Amino acid sequence: MKQQVVTDKLAKPNGHFSQATTIEAKGKLVFISGMTARKADGSVAGIGDIEVQTRQVCENLKAAAEAAGGSLEDIVRVDVYVRNIEHFPIIHKVRAEYFKAPVPASTMVEVSKMVNAEYLIEISAIAVLPNG
After folding, report:
1. pLDDT tens-digit map of 35-73
2. 88, 91, 93, 63: which is closest to 75 by C-alpha?
3. Which of 29, 61, 77, 108 could cysteine-pair with 126, CB 3.0–4.6 Å?
4. What distance in Å separates the CA atoms of residue 104 and residue 102, rounded to the nearest whole number?
């Protein structure tokens, strides 16, 4: 079972993520490629709207995790790439709708370019399916 690591030797996270996450190393590891706001038909959701794009990215992560036999609850780590770090509060508001405690460990960085200029966010993930 996934567990959140909390220590008073580190500052409390200022977003929707854990300082660290632990899980028994039994099961199947799932490495989810960077998901963008592309819908199943290939179109880009929410052009210019970080909230809509973040929601689509989370739906894509959910679909990938489910296709592998898991769920969002199995995700233990995410790496988030954004075009504008000022969108941090909006991104974490949406993430809170999708990721329940214990939440994944996370890194978020601002990047200058992505594969498609319409993308505002991309998230890759690692999941551990306990009954792999």
Report:
1. 999 999 999 999 999 999 999 999 999 999 999 999 999
2. 63
3. 77
4. 7
The answer to pTM > 0.70 is yes
Distance, CA of 58 to CA of 129 (rounded, Å): 18
How many CB atoms sit inside 10 A of residue 26's CB?
Answer: 10
Quote the strand ranges of the chain, DSSP E: 3-5, 20-22, 28-35, 75-82, 105-110, 121-129
105 pairs with which residues across the strands?
18, 77
How far does CA 89 lie from the centroid of its chain?
14
DSSP 11: P
pLDDT digit string, tens, across residues 66-81: 999 999 999 999 999 9
Looking up tokens 């929410």, which residue turns up?
Answer: 46
